[in-house]
Amino acid sequence: MAKYFLTVFDQTGKNLYDASFTAANNIGAKEIGLKKLEELNYSKHTHRCVTADGKLVLFQR
Fold first, then answer.
1. Nearest to 23 by CA among 5, 8, 48
2. What contacts 28, CB < 8 A, 6 or more positions away?
3. Which InterPro entries does this one have (predicted)?
4. How much is the pTM?
C-alpha cells in the first residue's frame, strides 16, 4: 500500500480540503480520490491527488 494526498482548492487558491489515504496503486488512488470528491461535493473544484513522492495521479483545474 502506498500513501496518497488529495487536495482541493477554491478559485483564489485557498485550500478547502487536504487529506491523505492509502491505496494499492495509482489506479486505486484515482478511484478513491474521485469518490471522496463526489462525497464532499468538490468534484467541480480544482483538485489534485499526488503520491507521497509528488507524482501526479489526478488533476482538474
1. 5
2. none
3. YhzD (IPR025544)
4. 0.92
Helix (H) or strand (E) holding 37: helix 26-39
Strand order of the sheet with strand 2-9?
Answer: 15-23, 2-9, 46-51, 56-60
Q: What is the pLDDT of residues 7-60, one digit of tens each?
A: 999 999 999 999 999 999 999 999 999 999 999 999 999 999 999 999 999 999
Number of domains in the chain: 1
d(CA 10, CA 22): 25
Long-range contacts of 54-59 (CB under 8 A, 24+ apart): 55/26, 57/4, 57/26, 57/29, 57/30, 57/33, 58/6, 58/29, 58/30, 58/33, 58/34
Range of the domain at 56: 2-60
